Amino acid sequence: MGQTIISAGLIVIVTIAVINANRLVINSQTTKLEGIARLQAADLAMELISEARLRKFDENADTVSYQAVTAFTYYSSLGRDMGETSVPIPDTLPYRSKVYYDDFDDFNGYKRTASTTTVSGYALTCKVFYSTQSSPDASTTSKQYLKTMQVQVSHPLYLTRAITISVTKTY
Known about the structure:
Blueprint: H1 2-53, H2 97-100, E1 111-115, E2 120-130, E3 146-155, E4 159-170
Antiparallel strand pairs: 1-2, 2-3, 3-4
């Protein structure tokens, strides 16, 4: 009887040790995936920013000569134009924004679902607004020669806080 109690106690101790070891391994893997997800989220945001920066500054922008700021799109009209509504929101592979968007502010309100070989299900959201040289991260309702794009990347499992990367484009 005494050895049975000792054996049962030993089994309980070994079980607790195995559970704690498994928990440690799982936490380590989760932390590793969170780090990978952060790097990949930044890469996805930069990829989208690079795509947008290839577009002209404004739908009404003249790319040959200097243009007055008054000719640019109104603040309330920043976003997709008539012919660009065929891009689904959220956009998925193959990304139609690469074909249909022709200027920087078309990405205002744009959403994309992206995946990598390691992690799937990233959600990218874009916001484009006029900004000033003194406050590039602050939105202004007046037309300017600067537009700022903020790309926010989130993931329901691996990003406890969304990552936001901004870029300012000048005319």
